[in-house]
Amino acid sequence: MAFTMYVGCTGVTPNKISKVTDAAVVTNSFATVASLGSNGQSSVVDSNGNVYFCQTTLGQIAKMTPSGTVTTFASGLSSPISMCIDSSGNLYVGQNSGTTVKIAKITPAGSVTLAWADTGNPTNCYGMCIDSSGNIFVTSTSGNKIAKITPAGVVTSNWGTTGGFPSALCVDSNDNVYSANTTGNSVTKVTAAGVSSTFATVGANPTGVGCDKSNNTIYVSCSTSPNGTISKVTSGGTVTTVWATIGNGPQQIILDASGNVYAPCFSSAEVSKVTPAGSVTAAWASVSTSPQTIAFDPGVTNPSGTIATNLTKVSQSLSGTETTPGAISTALTKVSQSASGSVSGKGSVTTSLTGVSQSASGKVSVRGSITTDLSKIAQEVDGSMIFLITGQIAFPLHFGQNVMAFEIFTGEIVSDLSHLTENIQSSTLAFKLGEPGSGQWFSWGVSGG
Question: What one-character DSSP code corresponds to residue 339?
């Protein structure tokens, strides 16, 4: 899976953003940003590939487009130092100024609510994360606490208690939250119900934490000397204290879709990579001086709605771009195989459209549900275009060279439509009207032909 990571490097002024592809192709001066935050969890990527960075000393949030254009997205904040983003693209920013940790909310349009939530906890909010329900979790290193804030802004100040100086947070697939604690060299686990416990003792000076959600394995970067290490903790709590030895001064942990682990190493100016099997490339990517934060773009655009089947069938059978705002409940292969041009589906497709396209030329418009094969209509009524209009069948009738009528059939088809064609040619047309089974017939004679 192709991805891109953007590494914030604070060793030069103005600060630089290094761009690194999944193939470790590095562009070290991809962009410049004045005064980046010095915290690992201070940058995020939205669904459009835009990257947002905390500018702590300037009280701002910088926005960088995928092409590298940097603008000021929001200002007036108080020492923004940590950040997370929800599924709608709203940013939540931890502000490290004042007596308590306050969270600002910034909409995708840039509208700022500076004091959206007050955690009530002492300052130093280095860690933030968000769970699958949109609940936000933020640390208080001065109080060794984790606060929980619902999407509506309801705060539980003492939702979790850590083992000392929580420096980073992550969440697993079950919405349990994990805190890397610099003091005590431990990882705290807080369940979705808010029960705190010491989950593991790890290497010295843990600075970052990440989770492989496919198996809920936790990885912790430890800023040991002379080289950093990564501790691995399984979902059952089994610890490998020195699972990997990486570059010097790791600041953060991120994982890609394949479970590879990456860490920006502040002192050695590189990004280290470790595979799930533990194979280490310490200098996987050499970046600008003093890398501290990574914004990770997985390169996947999430569709809205629910996908119930594999979308490979869509791409195999449909050319162009297919946008699905709702739920796909069946394979679209049959649609594209049988219908030329553009197919727009509203509602549910319950049967194959093969019969329509094979037997009818031109465009076919379907509204509602097709429950039977319409092939006989086109096969038997030669030269007529048959289509559905809100449950009725309409067709043009040709009588001779100059006389034409347009008929709407509102009743029930009682036999093979070959009879209908024969009656047209002999100037007599028969319908069955009214309720099915009523036995009422109507005959109409026409001249010509």
Answer: -
Contact (CB, 8 A) for 59 and 112: no
The pLDDT value given to residue 415: 40
67 shares its domain with 199: yes
Distances (CA, A) of 33 to 47, 186, 276: 21, 34, 33
> Any long-range contacts for 422-425 (C-beta under 8 Å, 24+ apart)?
424/397, 424/399, 424/449, 425/449
Pairing of strands 91-95, 80-85: antiparallel
d(Cα 231, Cα 217) in Å, to the nearest integer? 11
Chain position carrying tokens 């909310």: 105
Q: Write down the pTM of the prediction.
A: 0.69
CATH code, domain carrying 16: 2.120.10.30
Of the candidates 25, 27, 30, 2, the one whose C-alpha atom is nearest the C-alpha of residue 14 is 30
Write down the number of H helices and E strands in the chain.
5, 33
From the CB of residue 434, how many other CB atoms can be counted at a distance below 10 Å? 14
Helix (H) or strand (E) holding 14: none
Residue 105 burial (CB count, 10 A): 19
- What is the domain range of residue 396? 312-319+328-445
With respect to residue 27, please indicate whether it lies within any of the assigned structural domains: yes
d(CA 304, CA 87): 10
Between CA 38 and CA 71 the distance in angstroms is: 19
Return the structure tokens found at 227: 């080289």
Q: Cβ atoms within 10 A of the Cβ of 329, count?
A: 12
Question: What pLDDT sits at residue 116?
Answer: 97
> Considering Cα of 215, then 216, then 217, then 220, what sign does the dihedral take?
positive
Q: Does residue 359 share a domain with residue 281? A: no
pLDDT tens digits along 369-415? 334 444 434 333 333 444 333 344 444 444 444 434 444 444 444 44
26-33 and 15-21 beta bridge pairing: antiparallel
When divided into structural domains, the chain yields a total of 2
Report strand pairing: 102-106 vs 239-245. unpaired
Phi, psi of 383 (to 5 degrees): 85, -5
